[in-house]
From TrEMBL:
This is CsbD family protein. Gene3D superfamilies: YjbJ (1.10.1470.10). It comes from the Bacteria. Belongs to the UPF0337 (CsbD) family. Residues 1-27, 46-56 have a biased composition (Basic and acidic residues). It comes from Cellulomonas fulva. Signal peptide: none annotated. Residues 1-56 are annotated as: Disordered. Residues 5-55 form the CsbD-like domain.
């Protein structure tokens, strides 16, 4: 697993957190949902990274 992938996945998680935060501030429920979805996707990718690392 490359470090670039790990950085990209962490950036996706942070982007999701930012979207969710902005959505809360602006009372935009769809943006909050997008942020949560981005975070969930990043979490899945990070879990995959961990599994791949365990086998190396």
């Amino acid at each position: 697993m490359g470090m670039d992938d790990k950085i990209e996945h962490k950036a996706e998680e942070l982007k999701g957190q930012a979207k969710e935060g902005v959505g809360k501030l602006t009372d935009d429920t769809s943006m909050q949902a997008e942020g949560k979805a981005d975070q969930a996707g990043a979490d899945v990718k990070q879990a995959g990274d961990d599994v791949k690392d365990a086998f190396h």
